[in-house]
Amino acid sequence: MSWLSNAFDRLRFRARPPVDDRSRMRAVANNLILHLHPTRVPAPALRFTHTWGLGGISALLTVILVITGVLLMFRYDASVERAYASIQTLETVVPFGALLRNVHHWSANLLVITVLLHLVRVFLTGGFFRDRRGNWIFGLFLLLIVLAFNFTGYLLPWDQLAFWAITVGTGLLDYVPVVGVLVANFLLGGREVGQAALRNFYALHVAVLPVVLMLALSYHFWRVRKDGGVALPDQTGPIEKLTTIPHLVGIELGIALVTLTAVMLFAMLVPAPLEAMANPAHPPNPAKAAWYFLGVQELLLHMHPLAALTLSAIGLLGLAAVPFWDRDDSAIGIGGRSARGRKAAWLGVALSLLLTPLLVVIDEWWLDLPALLPGLPTLVSNGLIPLGLTLAGLAGIYWLIRLALRTRHNEALVGLFSFTMNALVVLTLIGIFFRGPNMALVWPW
User: Fold this and answer.
1) pLDDT tens, 94-136?
2) How confident is the model over 61-84, as a mean pLDDT?
3) How far is CA 189 from the centre of its chain?
4) What is the SS3 string spanning 154-215?
5) Domain contains 13
6) CA 89 from chain center: how many Å?
């Protein structure tokens, strides 16, 4: 009857929380969820401003998306004839169906933001040094999975917004050499967005990607635990360690409750968008990609698609190569590497806020390289030349930061990273708010 006594022990534990450090540590080690944490954590790692809780918020949003996604599957019909109607039924007939869809939709969008901010936080605090290099690269893979989740889920409502956003997004793949057309044909099940595309996107969204994400998250969490948790500055003296219960668990519970409350309130106040049913014969003007791809779509307006995709790939590879460019691990856990590095970050942000809109306006209204260089192929005049100028400009930003602030290499990389990430944000905001009919620049107010 040992199993019965064990059950009573568990009931006693639930009724009477552990009161000493030894029992608290044992509770963490024996708990299905809490055992992902160490039994004790360094006191500096508990500072909210060191991590902003972004990793935990992202994990919570993933759980919300899994739960709400499973519930939505009971009412959704993945066919071009009934997909849109099933969404309408969900929102108008099913009790709390509209709220359920709103929570799922906005949690997915918020997850993109929190994962990106988590990446920024890890970079700025040197969370990729030493044994953490592999997990940094793996984190980039997780970001791509989150984008793939949002991209495949975008089509499922089968409205005008979804249909043409996916049409624009998959159309970019045609410009990827060798494999682009093959990948587009695989995703769409042909050359057009139709029943095959809806079936494929639904299968990827509810079957393939969840398995990949769960496996990837499990490895990511394991590596974080194995690498010693949050990156902290090196200290010569002893570091105070506190038990996970109640210190870390209390903080995580508080952040989770605030996040849940914010998501629920936003979902109750702001409905998830649903336009008219998809109509391949009537494209909207403008036809925009999903908001998280609008930065890339904005680049397409200023250079050849192949050049824009190449620049995006170079940016992603550059992020993956950061642990090998920045080898000064003496700055681990220090925001911006140093006080001068933090100045470099703010200078990068200021330069991006000034130069990015300025270059967009100049290229939109005054600069026309194909007209200025009529003897060159379009791929050169509107592709290789803008790409080369952009890369040269990024190199110039790096050296400007080094010379202006007398920074070291790793501090200048912080400035360049801040410039690049903020420029992407500015391009995305331009695509969302400042592009009107025919993708012309407009004033939104």
Assistant:
1) 999 999 999 999 999 999 999 999 999 999 998 888 888 889 9
2) 95
3) 27
4) HCCCCEHHHHHHHHHHHHHHHHCCCCHHHHHHHHHCCCCCCHHHHHHHHHHHHHHHHHHHHH
5) no
6) 31
**Top-confidence residue, 185 or 14:** 185
User: Domain limits at 386?
Assistant: 285-445
Same domain, 302 and 221: no
Q: Is residue 59 part of a domain?
A: yes
Tokens, residue 162? 């979804």
**Token pair in block for residue 168:** 């624009």
3-state helix, strand, coil in the chain (%, to 5): 70, 0, 25
- Examine residue 21 and state whether it is found in any structural domain, yes or no: no
pTM of the model as a whole:
0.89
Which residues are paired to 242 by β-bridges?
41
Shared-domain flag, residues 295 and 274 = no
Higher pLDDT, 299 or 234: 299
Tell me the average pLDDT across 171-188.
86
CA distance 138 to 210: 16
In whole angstroms, give the CA distance from residue 184 to residue 13.
Answer: 54
Query: What's the confidence (pLDDT) of residue 24?
Result: 56
pLDDT tens digits, one per residue of 31-66: 555 556 667 777 777 788 878 889 999 999 999 999
**Both structure tokens of 411:** 């501090």
Amino acid at 316: L
How far apart are the C-alpha atoms of 262 and 311, rounded to whole Å? 36
What does the alpha-carbon distance between residue 291 and residue 11 come to, in Å, rounded to a whole number?
Answer: 49
Q: Could you give the C-alpha distances from 265 to 20, 60, 185, in angstroms and in order?
A: 38, 16, 40
Question: Is 374 inside any structural domain?
Answer: yes
Residue 40: strand pairing partners: 243
Q: Concatenate the DSSP letters of all residues of 43-104 into one string.
A: GGGG-HHHHTTHHHHHHHHHHHHHHHHHHHHTT---STTTHHHHHHHHHHTSTTHHHHHHHH
Cα(431)–Cα(299) distance, rounded to whole angstroms?
Answer: 10
- The residue from 221, 253, 280 where one domain ends is 280
pLDDT tens column, 294-343: 999 999 999 999 999 999 999 999 999 999 888 888 888 888 889 999 99
Q: What is the band of 11 on the pLDDT scale with cuts at 50, 70, 90?
A: very low
Burial tier of 163 (Cβ tally within 10 Å: 0-12, 13-18, 19+): buried
- The candidate with the shortest Cα–Cα distance to 108, out of 53, 156, 140, is 156
